[in-house]
Design brief:
elongated; 0% strand; 60 residues; 92% helix; mainly alpha
Length: 60
Amino acid sequence: MTADKNSSKTSAKADQVKGAIKETVGRAVGNERLTAEGRAERAKGDLREAGHKAKDAFER
């Protein structure tokens, strides 16, 4: 696995974690906009991770 793949996968995981934190904080303080931003960011990370997994499956 090259450094680019690792950094891209790490970036996807970071988006997931950051989104989950934003969503949780948004719910805790009652900020619907922050909750929505977190949900969107987490979904973006999920999609990127799924794309990497699919790409890895075809490379084998």
